[in-house]
């Protein structure tokens, strides 16, 4: 059984998609052992608790500096001995020591077709605002391994989504989530749990 820790910052619809996929048998050989957020008020924490999954907030606001926060976050992560760390809408830059320790075992969902609209400053709604401003006709989502860069790690899965003429960033975000993110993130976890075409 792959021990999965999910890191979240907000609403947690991707976390919900993972939990639903486990319930539906679309992800096998994996269990969520812990959900961690940098944000005490993240609704994602409630989604986890409703499912009986351990959910913890480690907020930078509670620490004197970034180094102490990073240390506490890593300690919390280590506690449940995860095999895989899933960044599901986690909007914190990972400390290098965490990337080093869990190299090859951290994946992230990004709401565009990398290498478009990714990197520093591209997160959440900003990604869709940039896609609409550029006038692309196709966007999508990407699941990739996390390395020391921002959105630069090896790509596992991508799915394209059409942009419609009257899209607002919010409408496009919802379509990308429904048609791409909520499908490819659970699929990637199942691939890793069952060693299907990934290391
Ligand atoms: C998702 O769209 C995810 O792709 C994005 O944040 C949203 C979180 O939604 N992540 C990034 O932009 C990372 N760079 P959720 O909390 O409802 O899953």
Descriptive report:
- Helices cover 37% and strands 22% of the residues.
- It contains 6 helices and 7 strands; from the N terminus they run βαβαβαβαβαββα.
- It has helices spanning 13-23, 43-50, 66-79, 96-101, 125-134, 169-193; strands at residues 2-8, 30-37, 55-57, 84-87, 106-110, 138-145, 155-162.
- It has a 7-stranded mixed beta sheet with strand order 3-2-1-4-5-6-7, with helices on both faces.
- Helix 1 (13-23) crosses helix 6 (169-193) and helix 5 (125-134) packs across helix 6 (169-193).
- It is globular and about 45 Å long.
- The chain starts with a strand and ends in a 6-residue tail after the last helix.
- Bound molecules: glycinamide ribonucleotide.
Euclidean distance between termini CA atoms: 16 Å
Q: What characterizes the major β-sheet? A: 7 strands, mixed
The spatial strand order of the largest sheet comes to 3-2-1-4-5-6-7
Q: Outline, from the CA principal axes?
A: globular
Low-confidence region ranges = none
The multimeric state of the shown protein is single chain
Structural class: alpha/beta
Number of helices: 6
- Helical percent range? 25-40%
Spatial extent as radius of gyration:
16 Å
Quote the beta fraction.
15-25%
Hetero groups bound? Answer: glycinamide ribonucleotide
- H/E series, N to C? EHEHEHEHEHEEH
Mean pLDDT: 96
Quantity of strands, as a count: 7
